[in-house]
Amino acid sequence: MRTLRLPTLICLLAGVYLAQALNVTPLVTLPNVTALRTQNDYYSSGYTAVMILSSQYAGEKAGGWFVAQGKTGQADDGGIYIVDTANVVWERSFSGAVNVLWYDADPTGATASTTAFNSTINYATANNADIVVPTGHYLLEQGLQLPSHISMNGEGAVTLDFSHVYTGSAISVGEVDPYYVSTSVPLFDDFQQGKLSNMLIIGSNVTVGVLLHGASVSYATPFYTLEKLDIKYFKIGVMIGQQTWLNGLFSCAIQQYSEYGLYISAETNEGEDISVYDTAIFNANNPNAIGAYIDRGSSIYADVNFYGTSFDYNTGPGVVVVSGQARFFGCHFEGDLSVSVESKGYAEFFGCWFKIDYGFNFTGGQTNFFGGYLPTSNYMNVSGGATVNIVDRQT
Question: Rounded to the nearest 5 degrees, what angle is found at the Cα of 264, between the Cα atoms of 204 and 222?
Answer without folding.
Answer: 105
